[in-house]
Structure formats: C-alpha cells, structure tokens
C-alpha cells in the first residue's frame, strides 16, 4: 500500500510540475494564422514550431521562469515575454506585428549596381550537411547561417542551395532569414517579409534549388550580414546540402546561443546587385 501511495504521489508531483502550453500565433495586421513560426526560450535549445494552422504546443517544465519566451520571424517584430508571466496568462494567442519599411529602395540600373554571386558554391556529393527523418512533425532541425562580408549597399535577388541528396516522401518547407552582425555573429533579423518556401525534387535544377527574391525587398546597407536556412517540416527520407571544407557556419536550435563551426559549411550562395564604387569627379 505504501508503494502505491508513493507512486501515486510521484504522478501527482509530475503532473503538477508539467507546464505544457498550447496556443496560436497570428498576424496583427490581417488576423491570419502564421504557420512554421518558432517559439522558444532565450539561450535554450527547447521550443516548438507552429503547424500549418498556426497552432503550437510548448513544454515549459523545469524552465527558469525568469527567462524570456521568444518568437522571431522574418518580416515581424520580435515577441518577448517573461516565462512566468506567459505561463500565468489567460490567453496564449501570440500576436505578431509586421515591421514597417523605413528604408527607401534605390532604383537599380547597370550604371549604379553590378551583379555578383557570393557565398559557398561547392557541389560536392560525398560531403554534405544532411538530415534523416522518420516523418515526425515534431522533429527539430538546426538553423544554419552563412556569414557575408559587405561594405556597400546591396539587394539580395536570389538564394541558391546546392543539394547533394533529396529523397523524401513529401515537399520540405524551408525558412530563410537575413541577420545583421553583432560581435561577429548573427544578431537581429533585417527582413521586412517572411521568406518561406517549399522544395521538391523537380525544383532542383542541376543540383541547385533557387529561391527567387526579385519580388521581395531584401536590402543590406553597408554592413556584414548572415543568410540562414532551416528545415521547418517533417518528412520521411534523406535530405542534404553539399558542403565545403574549412568554411565558417553558425548553427543553433531554436533560440540557443549561436555555435561557430569552422570545419565546413553547407553550400549556400546568393545573387546580389551591389552598388558600384563611385568614381571621383575629374
């Protein structure tokens, strides 16, 4: 009888300390749900993704309640709230506000801007950053960010991913972000729009998947920056980027600290229109 009582007490204790919070993430501007958004805890590798209908369920058990709940998504202002206040809230619908474009676009012409392709261009098949999955929608995939040095004003027109392996049962959802630089690592997102797309085998041409950004406004103004990619959906099969040795990549899971890796990086490169040097008047 005593053993049963102890077991029952342990169950009650476990239930009492369980803090699984469910809710929805929506846009303030149009009240639409936001799929594939990350909700997590600052400096922790724990969190959750919203599903296709904007729903999330996050386990906050044994989390330091003085830390912050964070939601970051390209094109939206960051959401932050103390974990304790978030748990005690009666409403767990998170409302994200869209960013306001305060940067005037420049008219691009061959006289003032030139086209370049920069980044990691390896098409190696045997060296890769790979993922294997059993189809779980709860799978957590790390975010990879590639650094770019820049001293000019430029517009990102296309993002290219060189693919070494793609054998999956369904399309894979990818999310891209562009971060500013602080202390030589990714900092704040500078995107004014959310960059999410699907990759399927037929979209991979000559080993490369291209995400066209010509209809987006992705400008970088005379600063170093980072372009990141993350798998956001579950699948069955194998998927991997080509990789290059001795190149730098930054990695993290949810909102854990960025980890710098210099042994090699995934093949991510971008097409840009970059401002030409102004010639001195003669």
From TrEMBL:
InterPro entries xref list: CarboxyPept-like_regulatory
Keyword tags: Signal
UniProt signal peptide: 1-18
Protein name (Swiss-Prot/TrEMBL): Carboxypeptidase-like regulatory domain-containing protein
């Amino acid at each position: 009888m005593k053993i049963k009582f102890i077991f029952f007490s342990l169950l009650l204790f476990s239930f009492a300390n369980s803090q699984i919070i469910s809710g929805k993430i929506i846009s303030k501007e149009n009240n639409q749900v936001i799929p594939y958004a990350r909700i997590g805890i600052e400096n922790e590798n724990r969190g959750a993704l919203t599903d296709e209908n904007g729903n999330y369920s996050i386990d906050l058990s044994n989390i330091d309640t003085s830390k912050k709940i964070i939601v970051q998504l390209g094109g939206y202002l960051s959401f932050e709230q103390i974990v304790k206040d978030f748990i005690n809230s009666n409403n767990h619908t998170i409302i994200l506000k869209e960013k306001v474009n305060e940067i005037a676009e420049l008219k691009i012409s061959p006289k003032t801007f030139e086209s370049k392709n920069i980044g990691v261009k390896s098409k190696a098949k045997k060296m890769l950053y790979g993922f294997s999955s059993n189809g779980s929608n709860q799978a957590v995939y790390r975010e990879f960010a590639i650094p770019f040095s820049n001293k000019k004003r430029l517009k990102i027109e296309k993002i290219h991913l060189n693919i070494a392996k793609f054998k999956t049962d369904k399309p894979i959802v990818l999310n891209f972000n562009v971060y500013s630089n602080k202390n030589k690592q990714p900092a704040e997102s500078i995107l004014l729009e959310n960059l999410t797309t699907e990759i399927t085998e037929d979209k991979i041409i000559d080993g490369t998947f291209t995400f066209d950004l010509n209809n987006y406004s992705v400008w970088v103004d005379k600063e170093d920056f980072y372009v990141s990619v993350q798998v956001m959906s579950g699948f069955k099969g194998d998927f991997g980027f080509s990789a290059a040795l001795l190149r730098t990549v930054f990695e993290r899971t949810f909102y854990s600290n960025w980890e710098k890796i210099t042994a090699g990086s995934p093949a991510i490169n971008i097409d840009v229109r970059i401002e030409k040097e102004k010639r001195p008047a003669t």
